[in-house]
Automatic annotation (TrEMBL), chain A:
Pfam families, alphabetized: Gpi16 (PF04113)
Biological process per Gene Ontology, one example term: attachment of GPI anchor to protein
Top-level taxon of the source organism: Eukaryota
Entry GO terms, CC: GPI-anchor transamidase complex
Name this protein carries in UniProt: Phosphatidylinositol glycan anchor biosynthesis, class T
Signal peptide segment: none
UniProtKB/TrEMBL annotation, chain B:
One GO MF term attached to the UniProt entry: GPI-anchor transamidase activity
Pathway: Glycolipid biosynthesis; glycosylphosphatidylinositol-anchor biosynthesis
Chain coiled-coil ranges: none
Complexes and interactors: Heteropentamer. Part of the GPI-anchor transamidase complex, consisting of PIGK, PIGT, PIGS, PIGU and GAA1. Interacts with GPAA1. Interacts with PIGT; this interaction, via a disulfide link, stabilizes the expression of GAA1 and PIGK and links them to PIGS.
Protein's GO biological process: attachment of GPI anchor to protein; GPI anchor biosynthetic process; proteolysis
Active-site residues from the entry: 146, 188 (nucleophile)
Protein name: GPI-anchor transamidase
Cellular component annotations (GO), alphabetically ordered: GPI-anchor transamidase complex
UniProt-listed InterPro entries: GPI_transamidase, Peptidase_C13
């Protein structure tokens, strides 16, 4: 029996801040924000913030330079037009999403930083644009994205199709890179919050306090920019900027909420009353189908005064009633680990689970392995239910030392209720001594594998696009009713490369110099030294006595 | 190791309202090593407290270049993530809510530090990572970490020597990148780092003399490392008294942390500085004062930008609706043709091999016998 609560206060907003997030009449900006709170079966709380700015303009139109920005952040707008970007997806994650315990996230992301960009057809030098784009983004987000270069960038040939509008998908204009080692901290959250129209001063963003957000099991913040349909007929494009923040909390959280335009909190109830009690109860209940799962959500619309009641504050209290019912088992799940021993060879195992009782479906597995793990593709095996499973499509691009990583993409058909294992052997390379990081014994990271799949849905999905759809269900475009698209990321790997002892050059120099000095010095002395017999010098008294004896002609003293 | 720079910018004027920015300063710092492998750990947060002082005294974040070599706040070993406290009473979270770190983790290298100082950065480097100073800027550099006689450690794998630093400052002087520079260093034998300076208008402060060690102040038993160094602690205590209009001068700064408090003897160097240290205000380097002049005249603002006219022409052309791309087009993927690789001219190796084969062939058979062979 666990108790958890979220408390929100409203103070009377000064008129300046209140107007900030409103829709401008006649203008073409629109802002919408949403918070979905879902209690998870493991006792954690999954909070997903989504902030969406929709802007009807064309950055790439010739002759008309966009210079007037209202809600859309200027820094990103300039980046989009300068580098002719069609779609941009960047995410910073701390922690790993535990699919088996928590279910599927609304917006998946791998640990570390991930950036994938679709450039426009008109770009002639995609690599140059990519390099400059990563540098500019590293300045905007205070992250080390400048470490993204050709050695960790890949060009997937079938994964990562654009999530926005468009028809031409020439994969030459796609670039994907991931930095598994990237840390996420307050300095990344600060510029992210600054991209919101009101910053962190109004709306749901007021709840985003770094001490609370980073004290969590999972924290992921992302920015997704893509062209979308402006209206239901879909005759023209609009740019959508979606900023998402997914956090999984383990404990008591507290926050403040202020008024904002079109701001709502969705609370996932499951079967109300069975799992937990919600107070204050709200009459607004809506159903939404997300990720093949129809759930009931309690909706708190923060723009309406009735939500706040008499005390002008919104207190949400969730009280768990003992152990909940069964969690819906995720249909697709993937794991990855390194097998083998020693510092010379190893084996990468990727295991994909299909938990559907009777349906088989294809998955696209994309693996990007750095060049210093030299893969032996002739040892690649794909087995399902202890039988060989031949992929229907394989794309492999071998690595080039210090230039390009390995890229392996396979379309595998997963039999129902099975476990598929993909193994490939590799050998570890010895790097040049300047290429080691300052802490090489920590190990080197290998980015997560990406498993993209169209999972058959138990519930019919809606393919209609409506303006009133909640944000969390409209991220991935739905093309057919019977399946939904899902992307699962595996764990990143940490492998140890053979590490030299960095103090050895100093030791070798000392030892060599000593040996040379002692050996050569002695030899030289032996060869060049001459010996002469030397008469010992007599004391003074005897010397004077000898003088007198010489005069006398008598034998001398010795 | 921490590095701080403050830079003064020349005055900027805005149309309509006269605002003269006198001394916006750039603050540049770098923070090193929580868990150094050799020595006992020093968790140094003067960076953040300086951050607060600098903010308080008027320097904006765009004028601060912050270099942190290790992630302390969000490290998994930190029992309170996203927080760094300067005092074990945990009263002040110096990591704050709006900190912006420009160089972090592996980016903090000697090369990057010197490139930032001298301005020799690749053209795609963003503005927040550059030191955009000119000949009227005052710069404050604050360094802390582990060091020795004539060097300062970076990331436990490389060092910067006092000669390199002196040369970098000379390059800055030649390129007119600073007006006056204050250099504060808090490491063991810190005075050795400023011995070799030879450029004008440099003032330096160190926490200990050559042959002495700088000591750390208080441990936090919850984390297991020390929070701050003694010199920095007393320096910050001194700065608490400084406010934007303060008249405290450099001579007061030199008296901070005498041997009775610090155990080590702080040192300073002013011979290269042209002005008398007694006449140099602390706020010349640590703070920034903006002068605002309010004008009572009416100003005509230009008319607002017209919102872009909707392209009515295109809707006639694009009658068919746009669609989203299929996320996993299985049939298309299976029948995808392999990418045509661009033709490259043969590699040098291939050319050499073929040349060798041809040469051997002609040597063996000779040209005139060719017609008999074919």
């Amino acid at each position: 029996f666990r108790l958890s609560s979220l408390i929100g206060h409203i103070s009377t907003c000064p008129s300046l801040i209140g107007q900030c997030c409103q829709r401008h009449p006649g203008s073409v900006d629109e802002f919408q924000e949403e918070l979905v709170i879902r209690p998870l079966h493991s006792g954690d709380i999954y909070a997903s913030f989504q902030f969406r700015t929709l802007w009807d303009t064309d950055f790439l139109q010739e002759g008309q330079k966009v210079s007037h920005y209202r809600l859309f952040p200027k820094s990103l707008g300039q980046v989009l037009s300068k580098f002719s970007v069609r779609e941009l997806h960047i995410s910073f994650t701390q922690g790993f999403w535990r699919t088996m315990q928590w279910g599927q996230p609304f917006i998946p992301s791998p640990p570390g930083a991930e950036l994938w960009v679709w450039f426009h057809d008109t770009v002639s030098d995609v690599d140059g644009n990519w390099k400059e784009l990563t540098n500019v983004l590293s300045g905007i987000f205070c992250a080390s994205l400048n470490f993204i270069d050709l050695t960790n960038t890949v060009q997937p040939s079938a994964s990562f199709k654009p999530l926005g509008l468009g028809n031409a998908t020439d994969h030459r204009f796609l670039r994907y890179a991931t930095l598994p080692r990237e840390i996420v901290c307050t300095e990344n959250l600060t510029p992210w919050k600054k991209l919101l129209p009101c910053g962190s001063k109004a709306g749901l963003a007021v709840l985003l306090k770094s001490e609370k957000l980073f004290h969590s099991s999972f924290h992921s913040q992302a920015v997704h920019i893509r062209p979308v349909c402006q209206d239901e007929q879909c005759t023209s494009k609009a740019w959508e900027l979606r900023q998402t923040l997914n956090v999984v909390f383990d404990l008591y959280t507290a926050g403040q909420g202020k008024k904002a335009f079109r701001s709502s909190i969705y609370l996932n109830c499951g079967k109300t009353g069975e799992l937990f009690e919600l107070s204050p109860a709200t009459p607004l209940l809506s159903q939404a189908v997300v990720l093949g799962d129809r759930r009931t959500y309690s909706v708190f619309d923060l723009t309406r005064a009735e939500t706040f009641g008499q005390l002008r504050s919104l207190n949400l209290l969730l009280r768990w009633k003992g152990d909940g019912g069964e969690m819906l088992r995720p249909l697709l799940h993937a794991e990855r680990y390194v097998a083998g021993f020693g510092l010379q060879t190893g084996e990468i195992h990727t295991v994909i689970y299909n938990n559907h009782p009777y349906r088989a479906f294809p998955v696209l597995l994309m693996d990007s392995v750095p060049w210093y793990l030299q893969l032996y593709i002739h040892t690649l095996t794909v087995t399902s239910k202890s039988r060989d499973n031949k992929p229907s499509y394989i794309h492999y691009q071998p690595a080039k030392d210090r230039h390009r990583p390995h890229l392996l993409e396979m379309l595998i058909q997963l039999p129902p209720h099975s476990m598929t294992e993909v193994t490939v052997q590799f050998e570890r390379a010895l790097l040049k001594w300047t290429e080691y990081t300052p802490d090489p014994n920590h190990g080197f990271y290998v980015g997560s594998s990406v498993v993209s799949a169209l999972v058959p849905s138990m519930v019919a999905m809606s393919t209609n696009f409506t303006q009133d759809q909640p944000l969390f269900s409209s991220f991935v475009p739905v093309k057919e009713e019977s399946s939904y698209f899902v992307r699962v990321y595996t764990e990143p790997l940490l492998v140890n490369l053979p590490t030299p002892d960095f103090s050895m050059p100093y030791n070798v120099i000392c030892l060599t110099c000593t040996v040379v000095a002692v050996g050569y010095g002695s030899f030289y002395n032996l060869l060049t030294r001459t010996f002469q017999v030397d008469e010992p010098s007599l004391p003074l008294a005897k010397r004077l006595a000898n003088l007198i004896r010489r005069i006398r002609g008598v034998p001398l003293l010795t | 190791m921490e590095l701080r720079e403050f830079i003064n910018f020349p005055g900027l004027t805005f149309p309509g309202l006269k605002i003269t920015l006198l001394k916006p300063d750039i603050f540049f710092k770098q923070w090193y090593s929580w868990y150094s492998k050799i020595h006992s750990s020093h968790l140094e947060s003067p960076l953040e407290v300086f951050h607060n002082h600098v903010y308080r005294l008027g320097i904006p974040d765009s004028h601060i270049v912050l270099m942190l070599a290790d992630d302390m706040a969000c490290n998994y070993r930190n029992p309170k993530p996203a927080t760094v406290f300067s005092h074990k009473n945990m009263e002040l979270n110096v990591y704050g809510d709006d900190v912006e770190v420009d160089y972090r983790g592996y980016e903090v290298t000697v090369e990057n530090f010197l490139r930032v100082l001298t301005g020799r950065l690749p053209p795609s480097t963003p503005r927040s990572k550059r030191l955009l100073s000119d000949d009227r800027s005052n710069i404050l550099i604050y360094l802390t970490g582990h060091g020795g006689n004539g060097f300062l450690k970076f990331q436990d794998s490389e060092e910067i020597s006092n000669m390199e630093l002196a040369d970098a400052f000379e390059q800055m002087w030649q390129k007119r990148r600073y007006n006056e520079l204050l250099f504060i260093i808090d490491t063991c034998q810190g005075a050795s780092m400023y011995e070799r300076f030879y450029s004008p208008n440099l003032m330096a402060l160190a926490s200990s003399q050559v042959g002495e060690d700088s000591l750390s102040h208080q441990p936090d038993l919850g984390i297991g490392v020390h929070l701050m160094d003694k010199y920095t602690f007393y320096l910050l205590e001194f700065l608490e008294e400084v406010h934007p209009a303060s008249q405290a001068n450099m001579n007061d700064l030199f008296k901070v942390c005498p041997q009775s408090q610090c155990v080590s003897t702080p040192g300073h160097r002013t011979d290269l500085f042209q002005r008398d240290p007694g006449s140099v205000l602390i706020t010349d380097f640590f703070g920034s004062v903006r002068k605002v002049e309010i004008t009572k005249d009416t100003i005509n603002l230009t008319s607002p930008v017209e919102p872009p006219i909707k392209r009515s022409g295109s809707s006639d052309i694009q009658i068919e609706s746009l669609t989203y791309v299929d996320q996993l087009p299985v049939a298309e993927i299976i029948h995808q043709k392999p990418k045509q690789k661009d033709w490259h001219p043969p590699d040098g190796f291939i050319l050499g091999l073929w040349t060798l084969i041809l040469l051997v062939f002609f040597q063996t058979y000779g040209i005139k016998h060719l017609k008999h062979i074919f």
